[in-house]
Design brief:
It is a single chain. By secondary structure, the chain is an all-alpha fold. 78% of the residues lie in helices and 0% in strands. α7 crosses α8, α7 packs across α11 and α12 runs antiparallel to α13.
Length: 313
């Protein structure tokens, strides 16, 4: 097992290198010149060229990638072209809202979707199953930002139960912190509840039809023990896969939700950086998201062996 873990850890290194190269290449090929924006509308071509040289934008692709990758390995993601603050500092300032949003969304999705999928599978063909599938279809069909606007209008503007926008730090109190995340997390979780519940239902239906499940029932085991200790455990591999990949994808969904609810996280930082062509910040956030995705994929692979001892590579 440890040999497999070591091999998987080593294989992630070239993946991260390729990801970093792709991130840098995409932004290098992106049209637009930040030097023109920084120099101003009335700048002369000579002034624009001076700004370009000062920022190192006049160098060739290989030179810029070599310098950038060397700085990244040293823990330096560069400096923002506009705020002149280190990118690491900007990411650190915006990390808490995004992590809080993603974690709460993840918890809501897990504790709603998995029981919903299990109940739908054990009550296959009943009204509970049909209701669960209707919820799943709606979750896939309605865009996340539409769900966010509906929730904000209903529970914030009309009922006044929760704040409309913004983010409250935990230092301001637990309830202000949680209440500022309920609506955006619920809106963001709508898609993943639909996805995870459908996969859970499908995996459980397949497992519940196996011979060992009928044998467990024939031995007189309780239905709860059969469903959760036998069926759900053996259905955990596909469920954990979609949960892990969904968790990594939440970073992308956070961009939309943070914009809708004005949450000062990495998503909103990415949007403002793209609009201003702040390339170092865009590269830093993209690299962080990509590495997070790769690490989560690694953890998912390692969990396979825990859920199913037959899986040993």
């Amino acid at each position: 097992m440890w040999t497999y873990v070591l091999k998987r850890l080593l294989t992630t290194i070239p993946v991260i290198v390729v990801v970093a190269f792709i991130v840098f290449s995409i932004l290098y090929a992106t049209p637009g010149d930040p030097a023109l924006i920084l120099a101003g509308d009335n700048a002369t071509p000579q002034q624009v060229e001076e700004v370009r040289q000062r920022l190192g934008l006049d160098k060739d692709f290989i030179s810029r990638f070599y310098e950038w990758s060397g700085s990244v390995l040293a823990g330096d993601l560069g400096t923002s072209l506009y705020t002149r603050l280190p990118v690491v500092t900007l990411i650190g300032q915006r990390l808490l809202p995004t992590v809080s949003l993603v974690v709460l969304t993840f918890l809501i999705a897990i504790f709603v979707a998995v029981p919903l999928g299990v109940v739908a599978a054990t009550r296959h063909g009943s009204w509970v199953d049909r209701l669960g599938m209707i919820v799943s279809v709606l979750g896939f069909s309605v865009p996340v930002f539409v769900v966010g606007y509906v929730l904000a209008y209903t529970f914030a503007l009309k009922l006044g139960w929760l704040p409309v926008q913004g983010f409250a730090s935990p230092q301001n109190g637990i309830w202000p912190f949680i209440s500022s995340l309920i609506l955006p997390s619920t809106a963001l979780a709508s898609l993943y509840v639909a996805l995870i519940s459908r996969i859970t239902r499908s995996a459980m239906l397949e497992v519940l039809g196996q011979d060992y499940i009928r044998t467990a029932r024939a031995k007189g085991l309780g239905e709860m023990i059969v469903v959760f200790l036998h069926a759900l455990k053996n259905a955990a591999v596909p469920i954990s896969t979609v949960i892990g990949l969904g968790f990594a994808s939440l970073l992308g969904g956070a961009v939309v939700i943070e914009t809708v609810f004005s949450i000062p996280g990495l998503g909103l930082l990415m949007v403002t950086s793209i609009l201003s062509r702040d390339y170092p910040v865009i590269q830093g956030v993209l690299l962080l998201s990509s590495i997070t995705y790769v690490i989560l994929n690694l953890l998912i692979d390692l969990l396979y062996g825990l859920f199913d001892p037959r899986i040993r590579y």
